[in-house]
Design a protein that fits this description.
By secondary structure, the protein is α+β, with helices and mostly antiparallel strands. The chain has 17 helices and 28 strands.
Length: about 650
């Protein structure tokens, strides 16, 4: 079969066009190459050149030449460049230095690729269903249940032995993905000389084109098999909240790489052959080197979790093995026609790795959130692997028309999608029209101390939009000049606030104590609010059900506010006014269970929720009220000043 395919492709009359000759040469040869089709394109790009290995993202080759220059396979272990934990499996960051490139019509490529059955054996997940379900239970109980984060992605790997010649199998699988998968951001095949990577990834991680940086959070999975109801899926709180959480996490990344943070576009439906996802697009302007953009966005919360630094710890703790290329990116770097840097980097998911000896690996993970069930997440791993496994002959290929595509345009579906934004913060959905600088804040310096949750980047953008001059520093280096800042904002972080062994909490506690003693304005957020509460004498309580990614309408000092929580712990109180050594402290609390949502005292305030979150529809109004009072008088607002406030509660 392989010989017949070779003979058929090579047979022809007269000289071949350059593009066709290049394609034929590389698919039969040993030179490193890549074939890729971008979403909606009617052509396949052919790239070939020299293979090198880079030790860091800064070493990725990028010179002044116009056009594509380097295709980098960035493994998950590269996250160590951000100082995050990982199990180092030694997977190299291989780079194709592009010397030749061409584009061929899709139809011509399909005619040339082998339509060959792929023979495999010894197939199955390396972690069985029961063991994976047990791991899901463990993460829900020990990590999300103890405040370590809002969501985590734990993977397992489908393995098999490919008995068809590996090159033929890889090209046939690529052909099957081109013809059988839909909705992929990139459909690709890469040969490095040591491995084939074949995939159809749905998700752009990050791209830069003429200074426009974009990200594409995708989450929520509707499985076509079984004939489910798409509208019921869109109404499912678990699926909705899963998307909101990764939206927040990627907004944190956009806060680091885009000059004014990210603007949210969507939501949209991403339809593939075996499943449909929900997605947003994020857009902003950047002047950063594209390699710095890559570094600051390692890696997508859709394949790691949030907050990202602690998610890396959780992954290392529970997976206890390397991820190779799973959850990394395939990054194409170059320069546009004007000489500006360009980047296109899809996530390495829905991807098979095939060795020259026929060893096959298809890693796949599920996003675990507070609503998750072990059985549901086991099923999700099968659904996510189905497209690639079908291309390899390991699963039935999706039948044409299996999903009722007309449902995607149904008025009820469009309304359900649009309604997802009704409860979200307009600050991130619009071009900052709701955030006008306040004269009171102009020239005021604010310091945010990050407790290992980069929500602080989003908070910084909101405070800057209000007119403040904002600096963000990490918990381990807050500086010795805290008194030079007119406002101190100790920020959020993961973990147990009462754990004496958790360094960020210890450091934040010292910063808060110093500020209390000095009597200077301070706003504490989430973890820091819990620390402040305990220092004021309030007991802390671990919630029976975590508030991770939860939106609630609460009474905040007499005004109803819609805000987003990411917490497992809360302070408790049975009274609304608390006498303390620092003066009387007013509490906004849940009358049902005594959970303290916010507090305010002489010169300080604290909020358990995240005013910067996309879930906090009224977050900007809350910040404006609290900060106006703190910076006008150096003390928190009274009940009367809040009631008389000219800032309305925001509603969609």
């Amino acid at each position: 079969m392989q010989v017949l395919w070779h003979d058929e492709v090579r047979r022809g009359d007269g000289p071949e066009p350059r593009e066709t000759a290049l394609f034929t040469e590389i698919i039969f040869g040993e030179r490193p190459f890549a074939l890729l089709r971008r979403e909606g394109a009617d052509e396949v790009e052919v790239l070939t050149g020299e293979l090198t290995v880079a030790g860091s993202l800064a070493q990725l080759p990028l010179d002044d030449r116009i056009g594509p220059q380097t295709l980098a396979l960035v493994p998950y272990r590269q996250i160590v460049e951000r100082g995050f934990d990982t199990v180092d499996d030694g997977t190299p960051m291989e780079c194709l230095r592009i010397a030749e490139s061409a584009a061929l019509p899709l139809a011509e490529v399909l005619r040339a690729l082998p339509d060959t059955p792929i023979v495999t054996g010894d197939a199955g997940f390396d972690v069985g269903d029961e063991a994976y379900a047990g791991k899901v239970e463990e993460v829900l109980r020990d990590e999300i249940g103890r405040g370590e984060g809002a969501n985590f992605v734990i993977h397992r790997t489908w393995t098999a032995t490919v008995r068809t010649a590996p090159r033929t199998a890889a090209l046939a699988a690529f052909r099957n993905l081109l013809t059988g998968e839909r909705g992929a951001y990139w459909t690709f095949m890469v040969w490095t000389g040591t491995r084939h990577l074949i995939g159809a990834t749905p998700e752009r991680h990050v791209s830069v084109d003429r200074g426009l940086v974009m990200m594409n959070p995708i989450s929520g999975t509707f499985r076509h098999a079984g004939g489910g109801d798409l509208r019921a899926f869109l109404a499912d709180p678990k699926e909705r909240d899963e998307l909101y959480m990764v939206l927040d996490e990627e907004l944190k990344m956009m806060a680091a790489v885009a000059e004014a943070g990210g603007q949210v576009l969507g939501p949209y439906l991403k339809e593939m052959s075996h499943l449909t996802h929900t997605e947003y697009l994020l857009a902003g302007r950047t002047a950063l080197d594209v390699r710095d953009v890559l570094r600051e966005t390692m890696f997508a919360p859709t394949v790691t979790g949030s907050p990202i630094e602690n998610a890396a710890r959780v992954i290392a703790r529970h997976e206890r093995r390397g991820r190779r290329y799973y959850a990394g990116v395939l990054a194409l770097l170059g320069r546009d026609a004007d000489g500006g840097q360009s980047l296109d980097a899809p996530i390495l998911i829905r991807t098979a790795e095939l060795s020259p000896t026929g060893e096959l690996r298809v890693p796949v993970g599920a996003t675990l959130v507070r609503h998750s069930t072990p059985a549901g997440e086991v099923a999700e791993t099968y659904a996510k692997a189905a497209g690639v496994l079908a291309a390899l002959g390991l699963r039935p290929r999706a039948a044409t028309g299996q999903i009722k595509t007309h449902d995607h345009g149904h008025p009820a579906v469009r309304r359900a999608l649009a309604a997802r934004n009704d409860r979200l913060a307009r600050f991130w959905l619009e071009d900052r029209v709701s955030a006008a600088p306040r004269p009171l804040f102009a020239g005021r310096r604010a310091l945010i101390v990050d407790g290992e949750d980069t929500f602080t980047g989003m908070l910084a953008h909101q405070l800057r939009a209000l007119g403040l001059d904002v600096t963000v520093r990490p918990w381990h280096a807050p500086g010795t000049d805290l008194d030079s800042f007119g406002l101190l904002v100790p920020g959020p972080g993961p973990g147990d606030p009462s754990d004496p062994a958790f360094p960020p909490a210890v450091a934040l506690r010292a910063v808060i104590a110093d500020r209390l003693a000095g009597g200077r304005p301070m706003l504490a957020v989430c973890l820091s609010h819990q620390l402040l509460s305990s220092m004021l004498g309030l007991p802390l309580h671990r919630r029976d059900a975590p508030y991770q990614g939860m939106q609630r309408d609460i009474s905040l000092f007499g005004t109803m506010r819609r805000v987003g929580f990411y917490s497992t712990y809360t302070a408790l109180s049975g009274v609304d006014l608390l006498p303390t050594p620092h003066g009387p402290v007013e509490l906004a609390r849940d009358t049902a269970d005594g959970a303290v949502h916010a507090l305010r005292g002489p010169g300080f305030a604290g909020v358990q929720f995240h005013p910067e979150s996309v879930l906090s529809q009224d977050g900007l109004a809350v910040l404006t009220q609290l900060l106006t009072a703190l910076l006008e008088t150096g003390s928190a607002p009274t009940q009367k000043s809040v009631s008389d406030s000219h800032i309305p509660a925001v509603r969609g």
